[in-house]
Design brief:
By secondary structure, this protein is of the alpha+beta class. About 25% of the residues lie in helices and about 15% in strands. The strands form four sheets. It has a six-stranded antiparallel beta sheet with strand order 1-2-3-5-4-14, with no helix packed on it. Its main location: other.
Length: about 425
């Protein structure tokens, strides 16, 4: 650690603190996560989920874990430095994003997820706070909850922040997979258009209520497995007819609405994969199809752009206007300091009362501001703030409703469970990726 000069503490949470630092030799600015737990062997360190996943994922739209350092039984993660997160970028906006910017952002998120899924992992905590931005570049971050696709279900630990949680997770399915990531992407895409969350549920039951109020209620024909999951919990879906997303998000193009509708389907088997989403007409505006994954892998290996020279493919570009990092920074008000970053659950007291009779089997006895569960080891600072985090708030419009001017209200950030590890012995070491 003597190779780094600590310049600022960015946050402190349940599982550790996050520091801004400079490499004394190269002058490179980095973010360092210092774990509170002691680690007595390298074997313990290498078993952490974010280490196991990030060391295998080298892609320009996935946050780079540069180094892992164990010194005097303390563990440090050295990450590339990013200016802000997507939530903070939305919070600072004074006007809506143009669709070209939304296309840019979602393209990069799907590129990172497609690469991740192809290499055997799914994220499980996709949300705006976990999308880090620097200029016009977007990177997927916080892999503390990541699972290997080939790992054997059932999965019993709770995942994802509630507002972006897929219906099968809300109904406590133990056999979910990568489609939970693409459902969350649909939520993020809608939020980019409106600057407020699409489904801001105050509890698990209210979350399902919010989803049904817009997407309509599932049936045995549209999602038989979900009906069975609900019945096993003595839960009945509220009855709604679908509300057109084009009514709720009038600024969205027909292609954008079609993509969001497909991502937000109740049945996970009907949602497009991340790689399939990249081929949707929404991304084909004035461009050819994106490169196939085989091309992406070879191109991305060197950390270079999106496709080879001379190929006319859609790729993130500088569209002008207010950049993501504008007015931000790696501190209070920025993505990696108080009020932003990745990790952390959420809590929100909804101002839309939940319909009577909606609590059965859905954990409605929990306080409505209990917060989300999906934070992992990254509980503070760069990877989630310990303090209050303003967020797009207010009740979601139900059937026929619309969105007005965005208003922000507090969203409490809280960490959640990393698994404890034991061990013995002492040592010092460094592992680069």
């Amino acid at each position: 650690m003597n190779r780094y000069k600590i310049t600022k503490q960015l946050g402190d949470g349940t599982y550790g603190s996050v520091l801004k630092a400079v490499n004394r030799q190269s002058g490179e600015v980095v973010a360092i996560k210092k774990m509170k737990k002691k680690f007595y062997t390298w074997e313990e360190c290498m078993q952490l989920r974010e280490v196991k996943s990030l060391k295998k994922l080298n892609h320009p739209n996935i946050i780079k874990l540069k180094e892992v350092i164990r010194e005097n039984d303390e563990l440090f993660f050295v990450f590339e430095f990013m200016e802000a997160n997507l939530y903070e970028s939305m919070k600072r906006r004074e006007r809506m994003f143009p669709e070209s910017k939304i296309r840019n952002i979602m393209y990069q998120i799907f590129q990172g997820l497609a690469f991740m899924h192809k290499h055997g992992f799914f994220h499980r905590d996709i949300k705006p706070e976990n999308m880090l931005v620097k200029g016009d570049t977007v990177k997927v971050a916080d892999y503390g909850l990541a699972r290997e696709v080939r790992s054997r279900p059932p999965y019993t630990d709770y995942v994802s922040t509630r507002w972006y949680r897929a219906p099968e997770v809300l109904l406590r399915s133990q056999y979910y997979n990568s489609p939970i990531d693409t459902f969350a992407c649909g939520c993020i895409m809608a939020e980019l258009f409106t600057l407020r969350p699409l489904f801001p549920g105050s509890s698990e039951a209210d979350q399902i209520y919010k989803i049904c109020s817009i997407m309509g209620s599932p049936t045995m024909r549209t999602w038989g497995e979900g009906i069975k999951l609900a019945a096993a919990m003595n839960f009945r879906f509220p009855q709604f007819v679908p509300t057109s997303l084009s009514t709720i998000i009038p600024s969205a193009s027909p292609e954008a609405v079609d993509l969001m509708n497909s991502l937000l389907q109740f049945d996970p088997h009907k949602r497009p994969s991340a790689s399939k989403a990249l081929q949707h007409p929404f991304f084909q505006v004035n461009s050819a199809l994106p490169p196939p994954m085989s091309t992406m892998v070879s191109t991305y290996g060197g950390g270079e752009g999106f496709g080879g020279a001379g190929q006319q493919k859609f790729a993130p570009t500088n569209t002008g206007g207010r950049g993501f990092g504008a007015g931000g920074g790696f501190g209070a008000g920025g993505g990696f300091g108080a009020g932003g970053g990745f990790g952390g659950g959420e809590g929100m007291a909804s101002n839309q009362p939940m319909a009577s009779g909606m609590g059965g089997g859905m954990g409605s006895n929990q306080p409505s501001n209990m917060g989300g569960f999906g934070a992992s080891q990254f509980g503070a600072g760069q990877f989630g703030a310990g303090g209050p985090n303003p967020s797009a708030g207010g009740s979601n419009a139900s059937a026929g409703g619309g969105f007005g001017k965005p208003q922000f209200q507090p969203r409490g950030m809280g960490g959640a469970g990393a698994r404890a590890l034991g061990g013995g012995g002492q040592g010092f070491g460094r592992h680069k990726f």
